[in-house]
Write a structure and sequence with these properties.
The protein has about 425 residues and is an alpha+beta fold. It contains 11 helices and 20 strands. The strands form 5 sheets. Strands 11-9-13-19-18 form a 5-stranded antiparallel beta sheet. A 4-stranded antiparallel beta sheet has the order 2-3-1-4. The longest helix is centred in the last third of the chain and has 20 residues.
Length: about 425
């Protein structure tokens, strides 16, 4: 190892009495090692790099044939690298590129608990910028964590660990006690679909709509209803479905020109006798023939594919039949769309002909209950009650405690009127 660091030469010396030459080198203070005899007149040995000048001075004037077989060691490697500038320049460039690429993310590993979809988390992370190829130092972990926790209610915490060029994301799910919201007996009634209000059966709560109002899906109809006494909101709703079909049919008609292609199948290996089929339009009919002898069937099958040349020909269908088929298809679609509780009030049928297309549209007017229950939590119900009891501008709040009612309460006024009437009676009697 020390020799390799210092560098050494592998030298061969050929001549008569090479031992005398070795003794001469030793007398001049030149160290040789790993001496090997190759033949009677040829030897091989190692010589340190620092002794090469002394070796040359001793060698001059001798009758021996000397060759440097190999130069080995770290100094020679460094010299070759220095001489080959392209190699060390490419080495520096490769090192620089390696350092640069280590600053970017190559893979993202996501670990999620049961009940949370990994693909949805990955898709959301990619949208906010955490994906392969992103610069590691540009990752804002707090911003990514807050975004995911806001997007997914079931996520309690998101840890992001960077190891090398890989990112490990671990999702922690909320406990069931944290996910559940304690509900109250109050609810809001919202519209399950668009419609025009016909009537409101207000069993509980405060209605904020009137007959004739146009409401959209999701609009609040009644506030503060009781879950045990659900109101009904009947509205006029509309359903529409349409289908179209061509009343011209393209039929392929044979011209009479045919060509056969044969395929031999032997033990699942197919050998086709190919032919050029120059037909622009064609249909194919296949027939198979198997060779058998008694109960034995040979593993050879001949398949004949017949190509029939065809031409496209337009045939006009019966419009009445097309209309009947369209109507039946459209009504079936509406049967799946209109709920069973809805009452059909009116329907309109419309046929349109555009070029060779026949379009059928049906619009159905129905009357149905569009009330949908939106349950309120205890916190939401409490806020709603406080909002309802808050007096409007210019009104005075009436305390719930009767002892703290104001003097001008209606019952106080009624009692005051009775006292005045009794005083007047006593004066008249006196």
């Amino acid at each position: 190892m020390i020799s390799y660091i210092r560098g050494y030469y592998v030298i061969t010396v050929e001549g008569v009495a090479v031992e005398k030459f070795l003794n001469h080198l030793m007398r001049n203070g030149i160290k040789v090692y790993n001496v090997k005899r190759i033949s009677n007149t040829k030897i091989e040995f190692n010589l340190d790099r620092e002794d090469i000048k002394s070796f040359k001075n001793v060698y001059r004037g001798s009758n021996f044939q000397v060759k440097i077989k190999q130069s080995t060691g770290l100094p020679f490697v460094l010299r070759r690298i220095y001489k080959n500038k392209g190699m060390w320049i490419c080495g520096f460039i490769s090192l620089f590129l390696l350092l640069m690429t280590s600053q970017f993310v190559t893979d993202i590993y996501i670990q999620v608990p049961e009940g949370i979809k990994k693909e949805e988390i990955r898709k959301e992370l990619y949208q906010i910028g955490l994906k392969p190829g992103v610069y590691k130092k540009s990752i804002d972990r707090k911003e990514i964590r807050d975004h995911i926790m806001l997007k997914f209610d079931e996520v309690a915490y998101l840890s992001i660990n960077v190891k090398g060029t890989n990112i490990f994301v671990t999702v922690t799910k909320k406990a069931e006690t944290l996910e559940s919201v304690e509900e109250s007996n109050y609810c809001n009634i919202i519209a399950k679909k668009d419609g025009i209000i016909e009537s409101v059966i207000e069993r509980s709560g405060n209605s904020i709509i009137q007959k004739g109002d146009i409401v959209r899906k999701g609009d609040v109809l009644i506030k503060g209803s009781n879950n045990k006494s659900i109101p009904e909101v009947w509205a006029t709703t509309f359903y529409e479905a349409s289908n179209s079909a061509s009343y011209e049919e393209v039929v392929k008609e044979k011209t009479g020109n045919t060509k056969n292609v044969y395929t031999l199948s032997f033990y699942d290996n197919d050998y086709a006798i190919r032919r050029n089929i120059k037909y622009k339009d064609y249909i194919i009919e296949n027939k198979e023939y198997k060779l058998s002898l008694g109960n034995y069937t040979f593993p050879l099958t001949i398949k004949v594919s017949t190509f029939y040349e065809t031409e496209d020909k337009k045939v006009e269908k019966d419009k009445e039949q097309v209309m009947a088929e369209l109507k039946e298809k459209t009504l079936k679609e509406l049967d799946y769309t209109i709920p069973a509780s809805a009452r059909i009030v009116d329907s309109k049928h419309n046929y349109k002909v555009n070029n060779n297309m026949l379009e059928y549209t049906i619009t159905v007017q129905t009357s149905e209950n569009i009330a949908d229950v939106y349950s309120l939590s205890k916190a939401e119900a409490k806020n709603m009650i406080i909002e309802q009891n808050t007096p409007k501008e210019g009104e005075e709040a009436v305390p719930s405690n009767p002892e703290k009612r104001p003097i001008n309460d209606i019952r106080n006024e009624f009692e005051g009127t009775n006292n005045e009437e009794e005083d007047n009676k006593d004066k008249n009697e006196n």
